[in-house]
Amino acid sequence: MKKSAGLVLVAGSVLLLSGCGATGPDAPTRNIKQVSDGVEANSGSVAVRDIVIVAQPTGGAAIVGTFINEAATTDALTGITVNGVAATLSAPSFPLLQNKPVIFSGDTANATGSVATLSAAAGTRVPVVVTFKNAASVTLSAIVRAKADYFSGVGSGKLVTASPAPSASK
Question: In CATH, what number is assigned to the domain containing residue 100?
Fold first, then answer.
């Protein structure tokens, strides 16, 4: 009996001291949603992930982010507006096939987007409106980051593609 009471006391102490169970489902650490600088939203089955605006030395900005359609029905990304300025995109629209992401900027990018004029400083937030063929448009408040550190390579306007395999020499 003493042994069981001791085990219950130890288990209860561990839960209380670790915070597990002490604050329940509303614990601040359980409610963290944004895990990066990028903002996120959903429009129906289309997920908008990690949207960040990177200020360029020219006064414009590059768009960083990922768009994923989780439905079997194809949709399309048809436009992006940053701080009231329509973005120039690398295609007129981007088909959003099921679980085939459209990625703006980065090593696996398959799209680019930029605005010629940003009119916002790094560290501020700007409205970003994303429009789709079928899903409702999404408005986000995205942070503007400087073209430095992690974002130093963003904005070249070039898509990164895999290098061709070396040919075998005879």
Answer: 2.60.40.1890
The range of the structural domain enclosing residue 56 comes to 34-146
Give the SS3 label for residue 129: strand
In a domain, 18, yes or no: no
Mean pLDDT of 128-155: 95
Bridge partners for 86 per DSSP: 81
Tally of domains in the chain = 1
Q: Is residue 43 included in any domain, yes or no?
A: yes
Alpha-carbon gap, residue 135 to 104, rounded angstroms: 19
CB 121 within 8 Å of CB 76 = no
In a domain, residue 83? The reply is yes
CA angle, 157 as apex, 139 and 69 as ends, to 5°? 40
* Count of H-run helices and E-run strands, the chain: 1, 11
Which two three-digit tokens encode residue 88? Answer: 């120039």
Q: Is residue 26 classed as helix, strand or coil in its secondary structure? A: helix
Beta bridge partners of 113: 89
Name the strand (E) or helix (H) holding 53: strand 46-55
| pLDDT, tens digit (0-9, with 9 covering 90-100), for 49-97 | 999 999 999 999 999 999 999 999 999 999 999 999 999 999 999 999 9
Helix (H), strand (E) at residue 7: helix 2-18
* Dist. CA 168–CA 170, nearest whole Å: 7
